[in-house]
């Protein structure tokens, strides 16, 4: 316990201003005669004295309880008034000081902070110093209120912005629908303009009759690396069903766009764009979770319709999705429709092997060649004894003449080889080969005359400019047991790679010359008939915007192509 005493001699005698330096001390003021005594007791002193009073306090009525800090705050006010009185002889000023202090004490919260400020900063206990501390406390509380108000305002603004974003997304969707409708209308106008232009043109090279072997005359055939938008309006087989397993993603390109295949929670095939709606990252390196694909970047998940179902670590934004393609699964193949129009018909039967045949091989290959050039190569059998001298045509004699007799616009029979061939729009070639015995072909007979047959289907998918994704399917009506021989799939893949390798040396060269301005259809001849018909069909789509989905729809007049009969 500490005691400080000061003397006063009359009303105008000397006075001493007291300073409070320790907030743990409580000041008691005693006035005796001409002297004033300020007694300060520490916390430990009070705890020692309170020990003997605990019994009395426990038995006393608990009417009001005041903490030591409350008494200390009151004594701070008394000390300020006392110092003001000691510094001034005028009793009126002391009364005003009391009123001013009481006014500051009306707010317990503010006065508590004033007390803390005085103690923490060792401020002189005068009225002016306390009023200055009170002003600073009020300023501090006002700033805290402004900060809280600012946070509330920011929350309100954020909610308003989120509502505006949702409204903007709705407007964007409506705008996209209007754009699609306008694009469709523009395409219709373009087609009308082409028809009018052809009507007033004195000559029409596209419709001129082809004269085999005649040079210097335009034949209307034009090869290009461009992928016509009209080609999208078809079903495309993009994967074998046996390859698409549960909890697996298979990425692929189609018409310069990345896509990814997977199976949903019901085991149905699904196809969405391989590009996350968040930051444009590929989805395919991620994983399948409960039939939904999850992006490996931030974990956003998408269902079979492309709708985003989960956005971890952030507020869910409604309406976010990626593009999804119409998809069906028939004949052991997964088919998608990449076009803007509503899907037409069903692809059922386009990729199936004939009755009585057993499936032996399904192979997938990436080919660095435009898909049209590859299709024309597959529809051309006349090159076999010149190109495939190390594989299936090894030892074949060079015939005096090779003919192709068409029985439909896009199918026919090769002579002297027992091979039937067909083109199925938009990118499928089918061939049935008659064999005298396994591995040997018989000449001057038809495929129907042979006892054994090998059936091939090539799906030439236009992945991107100058590249093709080739799906190859092979079946036979003999040697069914061969399917169960260990490692036979590797054998078929090796053989297919050898045959394709012989073709690529030439077709890649064709593509290179085409890029340099060369003409791959300068002088077509009779055995080019099947490839010519494919190219006519392709050019007609580009010119007229007409989409043919079946060989019957794609039939053409003799003025457009060679005669059906030689």
Would you mind describing this structure in some detail?
The chain has helices at 43-59, 68-87, 91-105, 108-120, 127-200, 371-378, 384-387, 488-515, 529-544, and strands spanning 2-7, 26-32, 35-41, 236-240, 250-254, 257-263, 269-273, 287-289, 292-294, 301-302, 308-310, 327-330, 333-336, 358-367, 403-408, 411-415, 419-424, 428-437, 440-441, 452-464, 467-476. The protein is of the alpha+beta class and 566 residues long. The strands form five sheets. Strands 14, 15, 16, 17, 18, 19, 20 and 21 form an eight-stranded antiparallel sheet that branches. Strands 8-9-10-11 form a four-stranded antiparallel sheet, with no helix packed on it. A hairpin with a 2-residue loop joins strand 5 and strand 6. Helix 2 runs antiparallel to helix 3 (91-105) and helix 4 (108-120) crosses helix 5 (127-200). The longest helix is centred in the N-terminal third of the chain and has 74 residues, at 127-200.
Mean pLDDT score: 77
Low-confidence parts: 1-41, 199-217, 550-566
How much helix, percentage-wise, in residues? 25-40%
- Choose one word for the global shape: elongated
Q: Report on the biggest sheet.
A: 8 strands, antiparallel
Individual helix count? 9
Please provide the count of β strands: 21
- Summarize the helix and strand pattern as letters: EEEHHHHHEEEEEEEEEEEHHEEEEEEEHH
Q: Roughly how many Å is the radius of gyration?
A: 47 Å
Helix-strand makeup class: alpha+beta
């Amino acid at each position: 316990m500490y005691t400080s005493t000061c003397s006063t001699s009359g009303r105008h005698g000397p006075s001493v201003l007291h300073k409070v330096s320790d907030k743990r001390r409580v000041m008691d003021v005693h006035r005796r005669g001409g002297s004033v005594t300020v007694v300060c007791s520490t916390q430990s002193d009070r705890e020692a004295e309170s020990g003997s009073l605990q019994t009395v306090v426990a038995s006393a009525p608990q009417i009001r309880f005041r903490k030591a800090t409350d008494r200390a705050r009151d004594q701070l006010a008394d000390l300020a008034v006392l110092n003001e009185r000691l510094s001034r002889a005028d009793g009126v000023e002391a009364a005003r000081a009391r009123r001013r202090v009481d006014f500051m004490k009306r707010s317990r919260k503010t006065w508590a902070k004033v007390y803390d400020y005085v103690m923490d900063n060792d401020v002189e206990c005068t009225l002016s110093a306390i009023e200055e501390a009170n002003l600073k406390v009020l300023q501090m509380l006002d700033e805290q209120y402004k900060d809280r108000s600012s946070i509330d305002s920011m929350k309100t603004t954020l909610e308003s912005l989120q509502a505006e974003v949702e409204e903007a997304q709705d407007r964007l969707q409506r705008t996209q629908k209007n754009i699609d409708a306008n694009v469709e209308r523009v395409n219709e106008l373009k087609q009308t303009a082409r028809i009018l232009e052809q009507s007033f043109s004195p000559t029409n090279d596209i419709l001129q009759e082809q004269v085999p072997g005649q040079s210097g005359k335009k034949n209307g055939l034009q090869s290009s690396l461009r992928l016509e938008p009209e080609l999208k309006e078809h079903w495309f087989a993009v994967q074998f069903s046996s390859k698409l397993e549960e909890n697996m993603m298979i990425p692929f390109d189609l018409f310069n766009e990345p896509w990814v295949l997977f199976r949903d929670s019901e085991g149905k095939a699904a196809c969405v764009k391989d590009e996350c709606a968040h930051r444009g990252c590929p989805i395919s390196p991620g994983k399948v979770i409960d039939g939904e694909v999850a992006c490996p970047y931030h974990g956003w998940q998408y269902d079979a319709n492309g709708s985003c179902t989960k956005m971890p670590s952030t507020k869910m934004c409604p309406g976010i999705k990626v593009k999804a393609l119409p998809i069906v699964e028939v004949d052991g193949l997964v088919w998608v429709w990449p076009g803007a129009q509503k899907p037409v018909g069903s692809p059922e039967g386009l990729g199936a092997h004939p009755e009585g045949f057993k499936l032996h091989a399904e192979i997938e290959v990436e080919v660095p060649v435009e898909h049209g050039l590859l299709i024309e190569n597959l529809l051309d059998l006349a090159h076999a004894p010149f190109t495939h001298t190390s594989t299936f045509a090894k030892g074949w004699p060079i015939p005096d003449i090779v003919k192709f007799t068409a029985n439909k616009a896009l199918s026919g029979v090769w002579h002297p080889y027992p091979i039937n061939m067909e083109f199925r729009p938009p990118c499928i070639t089918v061939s049935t080969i008659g064999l005298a015995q396994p591995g040997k072909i018989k000449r001057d007979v038809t495929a129907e005359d042979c006892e054994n047959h090998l059936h091939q289907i090539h799906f030439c998918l236009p992945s991107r400019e100058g590249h093709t994704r080739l799906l190859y399917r092979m079946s036979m009506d003999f040697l069914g047991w061969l399917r169960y021989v260990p490692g036979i799939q590797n054998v078929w893949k090796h053989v297919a790679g050898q045959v394709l390798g012989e073709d690529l040396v030439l077709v890649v060269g064709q593509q290179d010359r085409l890029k340099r301005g060369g003409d791959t259809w300068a002088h077509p001849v009779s055995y080019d008939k099947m490839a010519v018909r494919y190219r006519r069909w392709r050019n007609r789509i580009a010119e007229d915007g007409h989409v043919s989905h079946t060989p019957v729809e794609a039939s053409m007049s003799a003025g457009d192509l060679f005669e059906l009969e030689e």
